[in-house]
Queue: 3 jobs
Job 1
Amino acid sequence: MEKLGEDFFAKPTLTLAEFLLGKVFVHNAGDGRCYKGRIVETEAYLAEGDEACHAFRGRTKRNKVMYGPPGTLYVYFTYGCHYLMNIVTEREGVAGAVLIRAMEPIAGLAHMNKNRNVVRTVDLMNGPGKLTRAMDITLAHNGMNLSGDTVFIEEGENVTQNLICSSKRIGITKSTDLSWRRYVAGSPFVSKSKPGPPPVKRKVMLES
């Protein structure tokens, strides 16, 4: 499959949160291990007006990667046990990122099962901390550019006029009114959330 170039990532954060759905994230981990997952769920975060964003109060040592060029990987450690993976958006100097919340595993499943030790394939990557463990993504990948050969994104399936659901973001306590979560309707690989208002289905055209 074709590797996506830097131009693909140079989009507004909310736009990229939608365009990433259906794309394939690849991690060439070495030693014959190659992980691939199709992105089925994302969340957008912006410094301006979004208290849940790490960069809401400005640049720090932790969030400085968010101010870098679009297409950079921003990985951080949280809850004392999870790595979460984001893709930097916006122009350089403006903090924004898309959290990858869930993927459908499509390659490297044997290694993913070893990393996660779960029974059902559907449970391998249905959460942002689960998918990084499955794909062996750690702080060592923080700041990597997605135009390289270690981590990158492929075109994946040619998804056009796909139904995309929008909802409020999960697991946050600030700026909870923003409906900046996007996910593929009907995908069994989407992360689980508490019951709430019905999601809004939006018909959008994704880039080929």
Note: Confidence is low (pLDDT under 50) at residues 204-208.
Job 2
Amino acid sequence: MTRLLTLITLLLGALPATAQHVQPCDWIARADGIVEPWKDNTRTFANGAVRLALLDVVEPAAGALHLLILTPPYNELGERHCLTLGVSENIGFSNAEFDTLTAEYDASVGLVFEMNVQVFDGEDSTPAILRFTLNQATGDVRAVLQ
């Protein structure tokens, strides 16, 4: 277990401060990972077409929080595009303050979201603002830490 924690610490410490990763839904997007109470940790936008939810996948403890993003475009079965957003492929944020989530619309990029997060840097958690854009026409998400 100590070796695993050391490896995770080294990997997280090697990440640049602005690293974030958007990927198609996989094991991270499990419904049992939605942080309780659901009503406080999920929100809809664009007349319900877009849903964000805070996920806690438990491990690694220093990077267990991810965002679930359900968004157009819809596939041939009418399902939304499903994405997760974290620090890297399997590492999330060490803290995410879902109650600070704000959204606005910018015609040049689509929906623009911001939320306070913390990223584990190998020794401690560093506060940051996660800013990401969502283009509903393409499902493209662009994220940056500030």
Note: The first strand starts at residue 21 and ends at 24.
Job 3
Amino acid sequence: MLARQWLNHARDVMDQIEATQIENIKKAATVMANSIEKGRWVHTFGCGHATLPIEEMYPRIGGFVGFHPIVELPLTFFTNIVGGMGVNQFVFLERVEGYGVEIMKGYDFHEDDCMWIFSHTGINAVNIDVALEARKRGMKLIVFGAEAAAAGKTGRHSSGKTLFQLADVVVDSCAPAGDACISLKNHQDKVGPVSTMAFVTAVWMTVVTVAELLDERGYKLHIHPSHNVPGDTTAKERLSNALKEYKKRIGGV
């Protein structure tokens, strides 16, 4: 049954992350914890389905203030598929050098911030633009993506670099090069991608490690609670306090 095949592939990817990436996750989490402890930001960026881990981590139940999502609407798949802002335009835009430079002009950054970029292949120009601009501003750069599977690929950027070559810390998502993993009898292309599952797995392994580090340092986390648990009479207040903290801090961005 192909459903079980996909599930087995997904488990294999998660097992590979656990077996090979724990130390890199700890390194990434330490950089992020250092930024948040200083009252600064972990900026998060991705294109297409690599925006899903960004939306997953913050804001949501169990997330906490310190992560700043940067999602450029024309660079997601979650608009129209054809017509205006469709897939063809997206594929073109993510390869346009200079677009990421313009995106970065819309925000204020500090050298104590860090930049966390998600990219399956690490080769498209917009991501590399953002990475280079982050480095120019003195920020540490953390990249999550299929580094091993992307070995030998050339970046689509005049710098000649890939995201993985620019990063201070890389966490390999352990997803396969083509992302999809299930073959069909009568079709050339596979179905059943696993990169989003891999990203989300690595995200929460990292974010809870950031929380662990900050908790051990005595730092007060502003956590988004569930406000749907019967009997929890202070959940709305705690959520309001977390949003107030975010609003107070976002003024510098």
Note: The chain is about 45% helix and 10% strand.
